[in-house]
Amino acid sequence: SYSFCTLLCIMSRKREAGKLAATNAAKRQCAKLPVSKEEPKDWLKLYKTVEKMRVGVEAPVDTMGCHMLADKKAPPKVFRFQQLVALMLSSQTNDKVTAAAMERLKNHGLNLNTISGTSEEELKKIIYGVGFYNNKAKYIKQVADILLEKYDGDTPTTIDDILKLPGVGPKMGYLFMQVGLGKTEGIGVDVHVHRICNRFKWVNTNNPEKTRVALQSWLPQAYWGSINKVLVGFGQTMCFARNPKCNECKATTLCAHYKDIEDLGSDSSTDSSTDSSTDSS
């Protein structure tokens, strides 16, 4: 049995732990609800111009993006797990390589029981070629075990729980909410969305997560679900990180980046802060 003083100490520690948990939860909530900001001038006209340019121009994201890689005939729980794995593989990896790795995984058996029973070393061999494949093999196996143990063989249904899974960041989490659960609660920002939004001067940020928060502070929620695919495809076919096709682009009259190029008397520029990956998620 505990002494009276020991019990008081235990109760005090529990209260402090509860306060800390509440504080951390509040911080996460604040991160998802940025202060409202004024919309950039002519942003919608520019967006609609880019959207029209995407019509009839097939980009890798259209055929090999993460939303295309899960087996649509699979049972719902399996389908959601495959969507999540596709997003985990896509980080720092172009669409073609991600699609090939997903095909190998599906041939192996891309369901919770099979992946849970597969060794980490075997998973590494199957997904070899994707960026950081060693870490991703470890994370995918951990996620499979967690989903079996904590979620009755299904994926979490809230963004907070999804982001607690190993190897799952905000970009993957918000895109999974959209393509896996049909819920648009945030914007999926990859290197293309980050690069192009900064070029348009819709935001002034130095990483994708800051871009997400800044975008969500002013972009109407009606566009949160579509902006990723529109800008990713635009980045893969026209607005490259290096040597963008400004001479072929129909949005130059509205593009701040192009105006800056004209002011410098240059025909093209190089973005050292971003890469030319075709990562789509």
Description:
- The chain has 14 helices and no strands.
- It has 281 residues and is mostly helical.
- The longest helix is centred in the first third of the chain and has 29 residues, at 4-32.
Topology:
Layout: H1 4-32, H2 43-54, H3 60-64, H4 76-90, H5 95-108, H6 112-116, H7 120-127, H8 133-150, H9 159-163, H10 170-181, H11 191-199, H12 208-216, H13 227-237, H14 256-264
Helix pairs in contact: 2-13, 4-5, 4-8, 4-10, 7-8, 11-12, 11-13
Summarize the structure.
The chain is mainly alpha-helical. The chain is about 55% helix and about 0% strand.
Throw out a few tags for this protein.
281 residues, mainly alpha, 14 helices, elongated
Count of discrete alpha- or pi-helical segments spanning 4 or more residues = 14
Poorly predicted segments: 22-36, 272-278
Element-level helix/strand string: HHHHHHHHHHHHHH
Counted beta strands: 0
Structural class: mainly alpha
Radius of gyration: 22 Å
- Our estimate of the beta-strand percent is under 5%
Helix content: 55-70%
Major beta-sheet overview: none
| Alpha-carbon distance between the two ends | 55 Å
Q: Quick check: average pLDDT?
A: 88
Basic shape: elongated
